[in-house]
Specification:
The complex is a heterodimer. Chain A is mainly alpha-helical. Chain A has 2 domains: 231 residues, no CATH class; 99 residues, abc type-2 transporter like fold (3-Layer(aba) Sandwich), CATH 3.40.1710. Chain A is built from 14 helices and 4 strands. A 4-stranded mixed beta sheet of chain A has the order 2-1-3-4. In chain A, helix 3 links the parallel strand 1 and strand 2. In chain A, helix 3 packs across helix 6 and helix 7 runs antiparallel to helix 9. The longest helix of chain A is centred in the middle third of the chain and has 31 residues. Chain A is elongated and about 95 Å long. Chain B is an alpha/beta fold. Chain B folds into 2 domains: 218 residues, Rossmann fold (3-Layer(aba) Sandwich); 62 residues, Alpha-Beta Plaits (2-Layer Sandwich). In chain B, helix 3 crosses helix 4 and helix 8 crosses helix 11. The radius of gyration of chain B is 23 Å and the shape is elongated. The chains are: A mainly alpha, B alpha/beta. Chains A and B meet through helix 1 and helix 8 of A and strand 6 and helix 3 of B.
């Protein structure tokens, strides 16, 4: 055990002194949690801007715009009535615009139907939100004008065990992402560097065993990722009022994730010819996992084919397992995903443990 | 014997990297393995360090069969590998303390400092290894090779790439190891290093040992005796010697007279003394280990076999 600790300390010193390591372990996840928190916490400009050209400028058109504003998802901005709306959209790179015709009020008063026109790119999610808001405002106004009362309403009820915000759903993914980037992205080039600079051969002249060296790396990443997770959690709670909870299983997931991705990094590093190639290989494997493993985007919202891919990504089980224990309190699912993470970790660990040779041929 | 090698071979496909070599190393001596690049030196040494498995033959270090029982002596052997690079962001004392633990030793700070001083790195103790010069890095490597208090130290090309000053500094350090009773196996391709440091030398070429012995023995056995050089004597000197029946040859403007042994020098000088030819100086020159090496590994060794 003394040799493991000595190797852990020596490796840790070098890692933290590189500054890049310290940045990705502690500063980078904090920056991301602050950034994504600012974007999605509902503070400051999360409403979709819709540019409106009101050619009618009547009490009825203004009432319609007021109804639009009441949807809380849209913030309308004016387009002058004397410009061509399409030219204005192009000149100002506007995503979504609404045109209210000049006969808006007169048509309504005459009991004639009238259409407002929504301009935009239907492939953008903001267009869909704007279309739903405009349609909702029109429906509400139609009910009002017809003197009818809506009979079906909707009550919103969260399925999480507390009043969670987006940041709480983001936090477990952020912890999983940090484990992935540190353990995998750092360990792959490190293993390649140890091979190309002949550190493995030099270590083979000592009494340190291969297994001890591997365990020291896993322990090191578990240690710094635990600290990193605590920092991320604290920032989330203090700055964004996050309410996700740290459970014992959270720490078990951090350890299992470090075991899994450190082992995978070492396995990849064994087969890459130099540090640059190792970095490219870890990026090629890590980046798809980052985007498809449920860190930034909900897996359920992805197309079925991509969901199938996500199910094959080790990060998915880490992220979803963390979410299960930290947000939903679903310990059964969390334990299942912890088991999957550990099994994958053992498989990845066996590759360098069995095939990595410190000796020359 | 600290090291005994008998019929050692290492074969990669058709290549006989080490081809049935024999040698032994006595306790407390500096033994140098020399040869050109690709001669099989590092392969041989790495077998003795337990880093490669031999294809055949027997190699014993400290009485242990290195192919099967190396772990028994791992703590008694120190190694400075070829192209040694220290861990970039560890300071020398940190690296020494870390390495000592890997040899199951707990070194007190005073012991670490003493070792750092032994290798002459006290002034650089606070620098990260990445900022040390080439010579300082090798010194640190030697310190790491010594942390386990080894009986045998393998130094594989310890001075390659260093400037002459740094090389001579390291020579002093290597002599100090011998003085401390360590057995040193020194691999080098520098021609003067073995002559300066080694008690015994084995010259390898194409996987075979083509000559071995003390530097003096090698020079006597494979050298071309002693030469008396009449610097600047030119054609006039050559004619004067020929007139006295003395065989000589012209090398540039110098006249060179070959004498078979050192004992013949005095006689020849007495014959040369009466000569009245213009010259700058007279001096004697003996073959060096470098001359022997070039002769053995060069023209006469093209088939990889020593032509006795």
């Amino acid at each position: 055990m003394r040799r493991v600790i000595a190797d852990l300390v020596a490796f840790g010193r070098q890692y933290m002194r590189s500054r890049i390591g310290a940045f990705f372990a502690f500063a980078f996840p904090v920056i991301l949690i602050l950034l994504f928190g600012a974007i999605f916490s509902g503070q400051g400009g999360t409403k979709i801007p819709v540019y409106v050209q009101d050619l009618d400028d009547s009490p009825t058109s203004r009432a319609f715009l007021a109804a639009l504003n009441n949807t809380t998802v849209i913030e309308y901005r004016n387009i002058p009535p004397n410009v061509d709306i399409l030219d204005h959209i192009q000149a100002n790179s506007i995503n979504t615009a609404l045109r209210i015709p000049a006969d808006f009020e007169s048509s309504i008063l005459a009991n004639n139907s009238v259409n407002v026109t929504l301009y935009g790119d239907p492939t953008l999610s903001t267009y869909g939100i704007a279309a739903a808001a405009v349609s909702g405002a029109a429906t509400g106004m139609n009910f009002y004008l017809a003197g009818a009362l809506p009979l079906i309403g909707m009550d919103a009820q969260t399925v999480a065990r507390d009043q969670f915000k987006f940041i709480d759903f983001f936090l477990p993914g952020m912890i999983g992402f940090t484990v992935l980037t540190n353990a995998l992205f750092a360990m792959t080039p490190t293993a390649a560097e140890y091979r190309t600079r002949k550190y493995f051969k030099f270590l083979a002249t000592t009494t340190l065993t291969k297994g001890e060296w591997l365990i020291a790396k896993v322990l090191f990443y578990t240690l710094i990722m635990t600290v990193s997770a605590l920092i991320i959690f604290t920032v989330s709670a203090v700055v964004w009022g996050g309410k996700a909870v740290l459970t014992p299983l959270t720490f078990a997931f951090i350890a299992a994730g470090c075991f899994e991705f450190t082992s995978l990094g070492m396995a990849l590093g064994m087969y890459t010819k130099d540090v640059e190639t190792a970095s490219a290989v870890s990026n090629a494997i890590g980046f798809p996992m980052m985007f498809l493993g449920g860190t930034f985007f909900q897996i359920e919202a992805m197309p079925p084919v991509i969901q199938g891919l996500a199910a094959a990504m080790p990060l998915t089980y880490l992220n979803e397992g963390l979410r299960a224990t930290m947000i939903f309190g679903n310990e059964g699912k969390a334990l299942l995903y912890l088991g999957i993470t550990l099994v994958l970790g053992f498989v990845f660990f066996l590759i360098p443990a069995k095939l990595l040779s410190w000796k020359s041929k | 014997m600290q090291i005994e090698v008998r019929g050692l071979t290492k074969i990669y496909g058709d290549l006989h990297a080490v081809d049935g070599i024999d040698f032994e190393v006595r306790a407390g001596e500096i033994f140098s393995l020399r040869g050109p690049n690709g001669a099989g030196k590092t392969t041989t040494v790495e077998i003795l360090e337990g880093l490669r498995n031999p294809t055949g033959g027997d190699a014993r270090v400290l009485g242990v069969d290195v192919a099967n029982d190396y772990r028994k002596i791992r703590e008694r052997v120190g190694v400075l590998p070829q192209d040694f690079e220290p861990f970039d962001r560890l300071r020398p004392p940190e690296a020494v303390a870390y390495w000592a633990t890997l040899f199951n030793r707990r070194m007190e700070k005073s012991e670490v400092d003493a070792l750092i001083e032994t290798v002459g790195l006290t002034a650089r103790a606070k620098s990260y290894a990445m900022f040390l010069s080439g010579g300082e890095k090798r010194r640190l490597g030697i310190a790491l090779a010594l942390v386990g208090r080894p009986d045998i130290v393998f130094l594989d090309e310890p001075t390659t790439g260093l400037d002459p000053g740094a090389r001579r500094d390291l020579w002093g350090l290597i002599r100090g190891l011998k003085g401390a009773g360590k057995t040193v196996v020194l691999t080098t391709h520098y021609l003067d290093e073995a002559e300066q440091l080694a008690d015994h030398v084995a010259i390898m070429n194409k996987g075979k040992i083509v000559a071995r012995g003390t530097p003096e023995e090698l020079i006597v056995k494979h050298g071309h005796g002693t030469r008396i050089v009449l610097a600047g004597a030119g054609q006039e000197g050559l004619r004067a010697l020929a007139a006295r029946g003395i065989d000589a040859k012209l090398e540039n403007s110098d006249v060179v007279v070959h004498v078979p042994t050192a004992a013949d020098v005095k006689n020849m000088l007495s014959k040369l003394a009466p000569l009245d030819v213009p010259l700058r100086e007279i001096y004697t020159r003996r073959d060096t280990l470098e001359d022997v090496f070039l002769r053995l590994v060069g023209a006469r060794m093209r088939e990889g076999v020593l032509a006795e």
